[in-house]
């Protein structure tokens, strides 16, 4: 077991439906600690950089449109095995395939409007955290 930090986004479908508290309750219930959090309106440049790995995918334009369509809440979550723990509690990308009790099964609308993002590895977590937070904004 290792104490890790992961990067999380509560996506526009969550802020639009006033679900940030409901999602945070699931996050905290899973034993993850929210050690940094802020609500922002992502610019297109920020969204394109963040999801750059998907630039060639057919849904990229739709993804950037969605991520800039309303405010998001960016977060740093800390806990034992935080990366895998959060991926588990998020559930599958497509909510139709997500397990009962997961954030996406409970709240997501579709494969695009799927409520949350979570980093998929230690290296990507570090890059994603650094894109949105200065070191002194994270208080563990
Ligand atoms: P993230 O935590 O957001 O990275 O989700 P993920 O790791 O579960 O999925 P992935 O990295 O493969 O895809 C990134 C995001 O692109 C997804 O969360 C969706 O919001 C979006 N996405 C993936 N597939 C589709 C698709 O077929 N259509 C649309 N509109 N969006 C998609
Ligand atoms: Mg991903």
UniProtKB/TrEMBL annotation:
Q: Which residues form a coiled coil?
A: none
Chief location category: cytoplasm
Cross-referenced CDD domains: NDPk_I
Q: Name the residues annotated as catalytic in the UniProt entry.
A: 117
Q: Keywords in UniProt for this one?
A: ATP-binding, Cytoplasm, Kinase, Magnesium, Metal-binding, Nucleotide metabolism, Nucleotide-binding, Phosphoprotein, Transferase
Subcellular location, record wording: Cytoplasm
SMART domains hit by this protein = NDK
Any one Gene Ontology MF annotation carried by this entry is:
kinase activity
> Which Pfam families does its entry note?
NDK
Q: Which cofactor does it need?
A: Mg(2+)
**Membrane-spanning intervals of the chain:** none
EC number assigned by the record:
2.7.4.6
Q: Which reactions does this protein catalyse? A: a ribonucleoside 5'-diphosphate + ATP = a ribonucleoside 5'-triphosphate + ADP; a 2'-deoxyribonucleoside 5'-diphosphate + ATP = a 2'-deoxyribonucleoside 5'-triphosphate + ADP
Q: Domain Nucleoside diphosphate kinase-like spans what residues?
A: 3-140
Q: Where does ATP bind?
A: 11, 59, 87, 93, 104, 114
Family statement: Belongs to the NDK family.
Q: How does it assemble?
A: Homotetramer.
Summarizing the function annotation, the protein's role is: Major role in the synthesis of nucleoside triphosphates other than ATP. The ATP gamma phosphate is transferred to the NDP beta phosphate via a ping-pong mechanism, using a phosphorylated active-site intermediate.
NCBIfam families, from UniProt? PRK00668.1
The name of this protein is Nucleoside diphosphate kinase
Write down the species: Candidatus Phycosocius spiralis
Q: Coding gene?
A: ndk
């Amino acid at each position: 077991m290792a104490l890790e930090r992961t990067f999380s986004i509560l996506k526009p479908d969550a802020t639009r439906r006033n679900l940030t508290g409901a999602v945070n309750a699931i996050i905290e219930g899973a034993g993850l600690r929210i050690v940094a959090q802020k609500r922002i309106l992502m610019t297109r440049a920020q969204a394109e950089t963040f999801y750059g790995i998907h630039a060639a995918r057919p849904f990229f334009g739709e993804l950037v449109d969605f991520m800039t369509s309303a405010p998001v809440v960016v977060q740093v979550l800390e806990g034992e095995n935080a990366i895998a723990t959060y991926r588990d509690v998020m559930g599958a990308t497509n909510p139709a395939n997500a397990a009962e009790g997961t954030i996406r099964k409970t709240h997501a609308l579709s494969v695009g409007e799927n409520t949350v993002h979570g980093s998929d590895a230690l290296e990507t977590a570090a890059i994603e955290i650094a894109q949105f937070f200065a070191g002194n904004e994270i208080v563990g």
